[in-house]
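Slide 14.
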Amino acid sequence: MGVIHKFTKDVVDFILEQKKTNPSLSCRALAQYTSEKFQIKVSKSAINTIFKKEDLSNSVGRPSIVPKSGVVKKFQIPSQKKKQLFKNMEKIGFDLGVSKEPVSINEKIPAKEEPSKPIKVTVKKKKTFIEGAYCEAAGLVIFKAAQWELMATDFWQGLLQKYGKGTAGAIKNGVYCDIGVCLRILDMASIDSVTKHKNHGIFMLNTLARQEVQNDINIEGVKGGLEVIKNLRTTEKFFMDYFDKCKQVFQRVTAFKIECEDGTCLKMDAQMRTIWHDEHPAAFSLPIQKALTVLSCSIISNNQPIIIGELFHDEKNRGDDEDRLLERAVAIFESKLGKKIRKVSIFCGKNEKIAEFVEIPAIKRNFMIGVRPSHKIFRKIVENGWKSSRNIVLNGFLNENIYFSENSIEINGGELRVFSVWKEGNSGKEPDLAILSNCQRDSGVNIVTEFVQHWPYSSHKVTNSQHHLKNKKCCDQRPGDVVTDGLSKNPMANFDVFYDFSQHLKRYCEKYFFVQPQSNFNLSYLISMCYKIPGYVHATKEKLVVTLKDIHNTIPLKDLECIGETINERNILDNFGRRVWINIEKNRPPHLAD
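Slide 15: predicted structure.
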């Protein structure tokens, strides 16, 4: 049993900060995370005791998907009863307007009419730009984003704790483990070379502070880390462990396949960008550890809503069956009769199944699905929202006002909420996006905000990165391939694991972040031309925002913008759980104030 007084203040503070930063963390997950970080035994009951003492315990029952605000609907009137009530009210003279009655997805919609009167919209005050602290190598965030997405901190911490000598403190807190690979590729092999670069991205992007960026370097920690490299016991067992860990870290999941009890299926890419009939590009894949987290939290347990960027992505995958696909997705997510999930399989590559889950709870799953104007069913969905009153939210990442109206649509005999979304400056034209959701307990503001935070460019037309991802062909990797390419046949012969791992991260950036493969460029060239781009770093509890200032025009601006957009769309978190966001100075939006 865990007892609070046995924990040091650092451990208790860490537990509380993790819970406040990410309230969805369970006691079991946090106990495991704390045990691994501090190398002590922590039980979930001890975590819960700390929460109770600090009034952080969750209330009993299913948590809300997004924070509550506004009026909670306590009950719903059945669709047929609602229609009859509307007809009776119209007979006695009530004007119900066009947005009250749900529209069936199969109903033919007349051609749209322009609003007879302009709809008044207000402007939400935008946030003031905070530039942040100057960083002489802010572009290293691209390299670090790959490392964070692969969760490489635990990778090095485990190896160094097992094979390092004499610097338990530097290894235990994980600080050096996160920057060790970067020190090696940046040729910072001595304390003198480290102290000359106090404003370097390697330190500012790995600050221990959550709400501010510190320039102070923990010299003792770095010194201990350099000592680890010097005294590392590179035995045959060490190399075997290193190669095994690499195979696990770099293994990727490309798709999830949901199979129902009636034999029907639903397939989506690992990032949940869209639903696919068959093909699912490697560009939309995720590292296996992150993919399994998405699968567990959204599809299996539904502790977080299923948020699908758009119904279809590729035109050749579209057809006249959009209605049926949407109906099937809704039926599966809501566990309708015959649509209970029987099995979920995960795939690596195009058709290589690597695992499957069969113990799937039969629950109604909350979801949000984006529908774009290019979809054939878009007009049917948004027609009733054309003349409705509109609300406003602020897309905090892009600092854009977004307007939306709410209506409903009937699918499979039930009602879904429909949010028609307009970008700022497009308030009188056709909506830019529609969001379908069955989240009934949350306000429209919260649902739209949750969606655009997950897919920040969703209300835009095709961005540079979306066009790039649509047309980019990433060679599919079999498990382990990425860590065997170019390795020394005799790993004991002067083989540098830190440099080797950095080469794998370089390839990762090329395949999933860069516009064009940079295979003809060595790592030193990329460091000087890309990773050493100066800029500014601003950190809050929720975000780590890096603004790149490409004053030397080292790479084409369009390519740099594409890299930033690609990383921004991947929902990458740093080691403190902050969303990583990249701005490019020329087009940076002023959205950083809290």
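Speaker note: The longest strand covers residues 400-411.
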